[in-house]
Amino acid sequence: MLVPDLKEAKIRTKKESIVKANEYIINNELKSLGKDKLYFLKTYGCQMNEHDSENIKAILEDMGFSETKDMEDADLILLNTCAIRENAHNKVFGYLGRAKNLKSRKPGVLVGICGCMAQEEVVVNKILSEYKWMDFVFGTHNIHKLPQVLEKSIKDHKLNVEVLSCEGDVIENIPVKRDSKSKAWINIMYGCDKFCTYCIVPYTRGSQRSRRKEYILEEVKDLIKDGYKEVTLLGQNVNAYGKDLDDNYYMENLLEDVALTGIERIRFVTSHPWDFTDRMIDVIAKYDNIMPYIHLPLQSGSDRILKLMGRRYTKESYLELYNKLKKNIPNCSITTDIIVGFPGETEEDFNETLDVVNKCKYDGAYTFIFSPREGTPAAKMKDDVSLEEKEKRLYKLNELINKYSKENNDKYLNKTVKVLLEGVSEKGEDTLMGYTETMKLVNVKAEKEYIGTIQDVTITSVKTWSMDGELRR
Ligand code: 5AD
Ligand code: SF4
């Protein structure tokens, strides 16, 4: 049994990570372990987790399992979890309750969790005391060992916890089964060394480890051959790409080389304002296939709170960067993340946040109430803002965010924009959905043969979160 240890997870060394291209191993016995069996995989959290799930699916299918979307039919239930806020935890424990019920009716069903919650001491302790009926827990650092973890669970018939607190190496041969045929996630780095005081990620995902450019560029080229139109370069803090390597090759170099592969659309998430260099801005502005869309988390507009958060920038320097992006990248859309109710946030601090929102007029924002995460410094800070007050602030902030989102969208009315049509829309079978270059969701009446193509679309109506358009044929 290997259980997580937050103190160990906090350790950072200068050592470079080792690339391992043969670490995922699956023998013939493991390849038939899932024969005629069904798996049910539910994913919570960010794009990083979505992409991990694409790896997990490929591994399970390598073992002979097939996917079911109905938990009731499953022989294996796996929840890929997120730890970022308390409500993410609650959802997972709620789901485990349902899984327990199913297991009592079908005792052979295997139930396990993986992902960021599995890396948390509190969670694993709770599982060891109250969820002993579960079969397995594994973390974010040993996804490639899933076949071996499952084999052990099947043989031992008891809860198997295998969570590494210290990240390992960069594993390059994990298979992937992508959800989309037109757009793809590509990890360019793992982990994070920023240690913002509210954030659990540096503990659950470990230290920053950039992938070597050769592997990334190879992946992009293979995707182009397979007909992919868009790649999103993924990392907790992509602007810091390469800073942990020895070859003087950074995010601007990577962006430029990916642009030169000729892939039609490039996006990247998430950017920390601290590492956003002028050279990066120049490259984004220079290449038409790097999309004019940037997610630039603000978190707070108050210098006092930013300092307590350990964000390393001020309101003024954030606004300076924002203005530089807007000036140099034509039609660039910018979205953000904001936390309200950080410990000690006063009305005055909150007004500073509203002031930045009024200045930046964001295209959109993800807004959150602060959620203390055990083991992080902010969880120990005195939190004297009432929940009622936090909710009031969140409501006020959202009203403002929605106002600017609609105003930004209104500018698109009657304009013709390029949309990558990804699939059938929730609106109905005769409607497709896709995103503009600036990451606006558009619904278009079109035949299914257009799926996977980039089309000129004229915007006919605009809402706060989406738009409707018509194909310009
Ligand atoms: N409480 C509330 N929101 C948080 N986020 C990260 N940690 C917390 C927390 N403890 C938000 C930040 C981050 C986004 C992914 O989630 O805004 O950018
Ligand atoms: Fe959630 Fe963060 Fe883990 Fe993503 S990296 S799944 S947001 S805790």
Describe this structure in words.
It is a single chain. The chain is an alpha/beta fold and 473 residues long. The chain has helices at 6-10, 28-31, 47-62, 86-105, 121-130, 146-156, 201-204, 213-225, 251-260, 278-286, 303-309, 315-328, 347-360, 387-410; strands at 19-20, 38-43, 66-67, 76-81, 110-115, 136-138, 160-162, 170-171, 183-187, 189-190, 209-210, 230-234, 265-269, 293-295, 333-340, 364-369, 416-425, 428-436, 441-445, 454-462, 467-471. 34% of the residues lie in helices and 22% in strands. Strand 12 (230-234), helix 9 (251-260) and strand 13 (265-269) form a beta-alpha-beta unit. The chain is globular and about 60 Å long. The model has no long low-confidence stretch (mean pLDDT 95). The protein has four domains: 6-162, Methylthiotransferase, N-terminal domain (Rossmann fold, 3-Layer(aba) Sandwich); 180-291, Transcription Regulator spoIIAA (2-Layer Sandwich); 324-410, Transcription Regulator spoIIAA (2-Layer Sandwich); 416-471, Beta Barrel (OB fold (Dihydrolipoamide Acetyltransferase, E2P)), CATH 2.40.50.140. It has a six-stranded parallel beta sheet, with helices on both faces. Helix 12 runs parallel beside helix 13. Iron/sulfur cluster (SF4) binds next to helix 3 and helix 7. 5'-deoxyadenosine binds next to strand 15.
